[in-house]
Write a structure and sequence with these properties.
14 helices; alpha/beta; five-stranded parallel sheet; 399 residues; Rossmann fold
């Protein structure tokens, strides 16, 4: 009995030490913005919610279907929006000016041209290079391809563009399976929820934005919504992988074990992960959904009588891989759209001008294109449009 007692005490001591060590590890991981269970809203997210609810948000506002949108006449000192909620210093008539080719660009922050002024955005530089192209910037920071498609359906097609640019940046694939931004990105103040599409028997089904009114965000300031975080996370890849509640969560040690297991799954063990060997995993839900959404977006644009063109935006990692002769992260998606016969422009070639430049000259501190990179994108895209579109009659393409 005495030996059993001392053995039990020793085990309890070891467990207590492990729990203490795990508390330190969890604190360290949390400070490094790692996804450790259980989920809690960061203070930076709460500050963003308070700003939204107070009506003091300068550039973004809640949107019931897309999650968020650019405010009409929004102005945060760097970005300026018009009364139509587009990044522009003037409004546009629904009917294009005579003799111009109307180009409408949809996508995320790389389409929106974060980190540069309106005048330095590639859209405005494209029009400056060749005024025949009236380029409308429908880009919205942090949008996924799904939101961009909804943006086209709800707002963009009313402008009857001749050409629709469907922008997609490497990281965007993650957004195809995301519902609540903080589950995916802990850092930053972006806190919005969004819709997403799921595949059911090979067909796209819309999972609507789970937060159906701006005031519903108020409840998140005090804790989880009704039904717990699972109410927001049941369709979210990142919640289900990292934060889904487990009966072992009472143990700090088991939380660390869960975190390590999730990271190992991402790197080595789970065949369904989004990336595999540094590129999109062709068997992942994220890529399969992205492909189907892109198909539907492209087809709708073509059916509306406009010319769809897929724009692939490389990030700094893609440019680095390209310089080393390695395939870009989005290579499987590019192969897919090329096999479909879609018009596609890989903008990594916009930087292939024979001049040696450091990545710092092309990418700003937040990872977006600098004014120089925007200039190169505009020039490359202008050449492409002149050679492949403007020189031939604008007609509905076959897909």
């Amino acid at each position: 009995m005495k030996k059993a007692f001392f053995l039990l005490m020793a085990l309890l001591l070891i467990y207590a030490v492990a729990e203490f060590g795990s508390s330190l590890a969890l604190g360290f991981l949390s400070r490094r913005n790692q996804p450790v269970p259980p989920f809690k809203l960061e203070q930076r997210h709460k500050e963003g919610i308070k700003l939204l609810l107070s009506g003091k948000s300068k550039y973004f506002d809640y949107h019931p279907t897309r999650g968020w949108a650019i405010k009409t006449n929004g102005n945060d000192g760097s970005f300026v929006a018009n009364s139509q909620g587009l990044r522009a210093s003037r409004d546009y008539a629904l009917t294009k000016p005579e003799g111009q080719v109307r180009v409408a660009a949809f996508g995320d922050s790389f389409t929106h041209a974060d980190d540069v002024s309106n005048e330095e955005s590639w859209e405005e530089q494209l029009t400056a290079i060749d005024p025949q192209f009236e380029t409308l910037n429908f880009g919205v920071p942090a949008y996924g391809l799904d939101q961009s498609w909804l943006n086209y359906k709800e707002k963009g097609k009313a402008f009857h563009p001749d050409i629709v640019l469907i922008g997609f940046m490497s990281e965007n694939i993650n957004r195809s399976v995301s519902v609540f931004r903080p589950f995916y990105v802990k850092k930053g103040s972006f806190f919005f929820s969004k819709p997403r599409f799921e595949l059911k028997e090979g067909r796209l089904g819309l999972v609507p934005n789970p937060i159906t009114a701006k005031e519903d965000y108020r409840t998140l300031l005090e804790g989880p919504p009704a039904g717990g975080w699972e109410a927001l996370g049941k369709h979210d890849y990142f919640f289900m992988r990292y934060y889904r509640p487990c009966w072992t969560d009472f143990s700090l040690l088991m939380r660390v074990v869960r975190y390590l297991k999730s990271r190992l799954d991402e790197l080595y063990l789970d065949p369904r992960t989004i990336l595999r060997r540094g590129m999109y995993n062709e068997h992942s839900e994220a890529l399969l959904v992205t492909e189907k959404v892109l198909d539907a977006f492209y087809e709708e644009v073509a059916n509306d009588g406009s010319r769809p063109i897929v724009l692939l935006f490389p990030d700094s990692n893609d440019v680095r891989r390209h310089e080393k002769g390695l395939p870009r992260v989005y290579a499987p998606l590019k192969a897919y759209v090329e096999n479909k016969g879609y018009a596609v422009v890989d903008l990594v070639h916009a930087f292939d001008d024979g001049q040696q430049r450091s990545l710092k000259e092309l990418f700003g501190p937040a990872g977006h294109y600098t004014a120089l990179a925007n200039e190169k994108v505009a020039a490359y895209l202008c050449r492409y449009l002149k050679e492949n579109v403007a020189a031939s009659p604008l007609r509905r393409p076959s897909i």
